User: Fold these one by one.
Assistant:
Number 1:
Amino acid sequence: MKIAIVGSGGRLGAALMREYQDKFDVLGFNHAQLDLADAADIHRKIDQLDFDVLINAAAMTNVDLCESQRAEAFQINAEAPRLLAEICAQKNAKLIHISTDYVFDGEKREPYLEDDAAKPISIYGESKRAGESNVLAVQDRHLVLRISWVFGPDRPSFIDGVIKRALENEKVEAVADKFSAPTYTRDLGEMLPRLFDVDLATGRVRPDGGLAGGLLHFANAGECSWQEYGQHALDCCDALGLPLKTRSVAPLKLSDIKQFVARRPVYTVLSTAKFAALTGTEPRSWRDALTDYIECSYLKK
């Protein structure tokens, strides 16, 4: 199987490249190699390729910057996915487009299902929701995969920032009233091939290419606040004997973060019930995934 990955230089894209390099015929494009803000560049680079699945792991993800650069956000997060979906349809290839929990307003207070109404409260969320709609309007075999709070070894994430601060400072703080579920890039990379040839409508493998797509959520199991997320990371680091200057994460309120420009939804836990029913497997807990990541990434330091 031939796989193309857009966004191969990012946290998720790099993980997918590493996971698939020995399993598939894989080609990646980082930001320097493919400009999603340039439709001509997309056509020039992607039209000529032969692939079965294209994974779009690229996006304009700076939530606050999107507020002041709305046109660019919609070009990269909405129009580029539409163009990629059209190119894939012409090639009879499947597009897997990575989206976000920020398409929800956070008012539900229980895990969001795929058919819950998307009500974004930021330009970033609006642009990503537009991208979802554009992809699904092109061809019904394309898949939009929503994920949340991505962490992994290829680019520092929130969790790496917490650990760094704890190694250097005697006080670390994190928001305690915003909730979601972390997503480990390693777990996502291992899971994703199960969806290459699966019809989302039936859960069966359809190698003939007649695959129903749609929306699907994936994240590690459970939920947590940023504070709980960071605290578990420090607990793991402490158990490994890392020379932390503090072993606790103090609570902050979301309203205390004055530098935020865009509104953030306060509860965006994604239900993975549909994924579990489709694949017959449950994602492992975020605590187990984070422990694995820290043991692999920090034990050698």
Note: The mean pLDDT is 93.
Number 2:
Amino acid sequence: YGQDRPADRPLRLGSIKSNLGHTQAAAGVAGVIKMVQALAHEALPRTLHVDAPSPHVDWSSGAVELLTDQRPWPRADTPRRAGVSSFGISGTNAHVIIEEAPAAEAAPSDDAAPSDVAGLFDARSDVDAPVTVEPVAMPVVPWLLSARNPQALREQAERLHAAVSDLDPQDVGLTLATARARFDHRAVVTGPDRDTLLTGLSALAAGTPSPDVAQDVVTPGRLGLLFTGQGAQRAGMGLGLYEAFPVYAGAFDEVCGVLDPLLGRSL
């Protein structure tokens, strides 16, 4: 890529590793995300923590320049392109070329007034106004409801049914999901259109079963996170290390001594 380039347009070289370190299986997609953002912001981000270019690279053999400073990357007469390489620990190399998309035409404006469902409930969150977004087609829209007890949940469904019959279902769904307080008794009504959602609300208000309604009560639980490091390739990968190296075995036993009582089982 660095061959036969104009002197004022060298190949710019950067690295996502300078931002995130070793990301293992996410390295490729992280590089793609970085370059898509660079295209969108019309800027080439600098590579962090660079003291000097590697002496193991012959920088004079082509027009290649390390991105030690951010540089503008505006649209031009020809499409902008970026190559993203991901080098796996096993020697697997992947390379994709990203090209900027054509300039998008302005979408027609929607003059409809935003729906206001924030005043339907006694329970308020710290958001005073409903949240609105540009409409995007969704195959299923969720309407989320919560209350302090089952009777209040049914009453909330009844009030919602009476107030939103002529409002945009997605606008209602977004406001319910992001601008309402959350209590222990919860329900979600799902449907591809307004009629299905309203039918589900009626069933919830009446306390009758519906395939479009799910409800339950919040119960306490615990969250466990397991960071596998380099042990994700195959089961028992660390067993050889444990059997061969006493220092490794001692460190592993120390970790198990802390975590096993908390997990209720042997790590």
Note: The chain has a mean pLDDT of 84.
Number 3:
Amino acid sequence: MLSSPQAGNPPSPKRGGLFAFFKPETPAPPVQGSPEEIKRQFRYWQNRILLSSLIGYALFYFVRKNLGIAMPYLEKDLGISKSDLGLFLTLHGVLYGISKFANGFLADRANARTMMAAGLILSAITNFFFGFSSAVVALGMFWMLNGWFQGIGFPPCARLMTHWFSPKELATKMSIWNTSHSIGAALVLILCGYLLKHTGNWRLCFIVPGAIALLGSVFLLFALRDTPRSLGLPEVEGTESKQTESDETSGAEFKAFLRKKVFGNPYIWIIALANFFVYSVRYAVLDWGPTLLHEMKRFDIAKAGWMTASFEISGIAGMLLMGWLTDKLFKGRGARTCVFCMALTAVSIFVFWKLPADSLVLNTAALCCAGFFIYGPQALVGISVANLATKRAAATAIGLTGIFGYASTVLSGWGLGKLVEMNTLRDQEGAILEHGWGAGFAGILLMAVIGTLLFAAAWPAKAHGYDQK
């Protein structure tokens, strides 16, 4: 599991100012002790890093997914239109995707501990400003800023996971970490729902989570550490580097490494493109689920909401199982697992489409199956490219897939809505006779099929890039 600690690495050049706060931690002298004692310390820090980063990223969702539940109150209190609120969400998502990619470059050469804490602090501050604002322009600007700061959260986690866990177990461990998305989203919805029910004050939905996030950033500074070498521990076996931390992050050499390992690897591009269709299917169900269940299946809106929620909840089990299967069955080759997941997602959606609307249980079960299978690729895409790019460029590679993932909202949002609208039947007076969800389902199925074929094209990809010169 562990390689021999590197002795005698010269410390990185010291730099002052703000840069020093984000500079990777200097390697510490190798820990002395028996191999068993070193392994015990390493396991302790692995568990601590996994749990702390999971909690930290869940807190990013506290100051990111709180707008949705507050929107009806914002609309009523400030008179903000639905189109303006929708624009907040769109611009937030676009900036988040760009930020995730841009900050990936930084995270691969930065201190994961301080970078993650700084991102959470900045998101908390923008939530405070949002909560105390009333002007539409100010609210939009603060939420756009929050989108950028949110993009700082994931890249340092990618650095942590790939530095602390072997490629042989990364899929399992990172799938566990990936549950932070659902945990954070669920908890903030419960918290804000309670605040709104008992106070009716939408501003508390931003001020209270912001305060919790600030406390969480302090927790991250104490709980996290950058890399095993920063504690004098050996590197994970199979990921060893003969270079110093300074050499690994030097500008020219690092850019050459990125060109070879990330931008020059065709399988990373194929998987990134496949991620476009993974997110297209996922967001199509999440964003349009309540509407199609109400309009096509004739379920009341309350049941439609719970049924859509079951889609995401079942995804937690899917992430955990698919991560474990990737390590045990496919030896870390995540793209191979994704082939089966996307194919079974397509089957589940087809079954859901054709099920009669009179069975709540069967329709919910079909939605749960779709969520179970689609969330496997949602987690494994990042894991696969992180392994291929190695720990030195994992954040950059995952950032690249994020660009494709969040670009999918054009297809899953506007594109799918337009498709359904074009196929909606109306009478001569313009009244709707039948919604065009048949065409909508055909579109979602096509997305799943294309995603399956792209993952199949990445089938020959290696498990990781550590053994490639």
Note: The longest strand covers residues 432-434.
